[in-house]
Amino acid sequence: MITLGEGNTPLLRASRLGDRLGVELWLKWEGANPTGSFKDRGMAVAVSRALERGANGVVCASTGNTAASTAAYAALAGLRAVVVVPRGAVARGKIAQARAVGAELREIDGTFEDAHLEARRLADDEGFVNVNSINPDRIEGQSSAAREILEQLGRVPDVLALPYGGGGNTVAYAQGFGAALPRFLLGEAAQRGETFASAIRISAPVHRQEVARVLERSGGTAVPLTESQLEDAWRRIARDEGVFCEPASAAGIAAVAAAGADGAVVCVLTGNGLKDPDSAERLAA
After folding, report:
1. Would you give per-residue pLDDT tens digits along the chain (285 residues)?
2. Which domain holds residue 112?
3. Is 43 found in the same domain as 88?
């Protein structure tokens, strides 16, 4: 097993922010993972199995967090890592992480969806293992977060709120919770292809159909959010609870504020604020 000590992240009681929202609020702080995001859970499993199967290397398309995580776990495994990103669309902190540990960065002119197609081509043509969330090993690894919440909270929360970019994390949490699902409340950018929250800047979610099934099963909903709603939620998390997350991580809180919720709410904060220093500096001004 290739591991950097991922998982076992804190579940923080957020009393001040919870009082504002009228709920019992908990923050699942995934920014505490080794490369600073939730992606490490799935990458540990995906890279371990790629190594076990004798892969030539691993490849991914990324808006940033997957790139950093892929690069780190591939370096530990001694595997070549190729990362395909849309030119100019990825936060510099994440690019720096990937380069620092030796990933081969390929920037393309286009969207995340174009990068995803290129990563699939490389997997088919050059014998790499694709470690995007289309890889079931990624979903399996990420599902561990749901089981941790059950252990830490001692029960199924009434609501699970999280950002909605590609949808893989939604699918993973549903798998981890099993038959007894909380109500899923997903925060997505209304301007998906242009949002400043770069981690969820994905125009066409790969897992859209699976996410729709999770929402139907759980009685949940996806909430389109304006840029100002995302900004306001980010500031509240930082200033009420002292947690410095990247902007996209605030989408779950913004969804709760916009749509409302009752009971015990667990909000997943997917990445550390140092991932996107330019946006964080602007928002903190």
Report:
1. 999 999 999 999 999 999 999 999 999 999 999 999 999 999 999 999 999 999 989 999 987 899 999 999 999 999 999 999 888 878 788 889 999 999 999 999 988 889 989 999 989 888 899 999 999 999 999 999 999 999 999 999 999 999 999 999 999 999 999 999 999 999 999 999 999 998 899 999 999 999 999 999 999 999 999 999 999 999 999 999 999 999 999 999 999 999 999 999 999 999 999 988 888 788 887
2. 39-137
3. yes
State the maximum Cα–Cα separation within the chain, in Å, rounded to a whole number: 53
Q: Distance between CA 151 and CA 32 in Å, rounded?
A: 18
**Is 5 inside a domain boundary?**
no
* 184 domain residue, yes or no: yes
For residue 152, the one-letter residue type is: Q
Rg (CA), the chain: 17
Which two three-digit tokens encode residue 86? Answer: 């849309």
Give yes or no: residues 148 and 269 share one domain: yes
Instruction: Say yes or no: 151 and 103 in one domain.
Output: no
CA distance linking residue 75 with residue 107, whole number of Å: 20
Q: Examine the domain organization and report whether 91 and 27 are in the same domain.
A: no
Asked whether residue 92 falls in the same domain as residue 193, the answer is no
Tokens of 29: 């702080």
What span, in angstroms and rounded, lies between the C-alpha atoms of 238 and 18? Answer: 13
Nearest CA to 41 among 126, 115, 131, 112? 131
Q: Which of 137, 163, 193 lies at the terminal end of a domain, its last residue?
A: 137
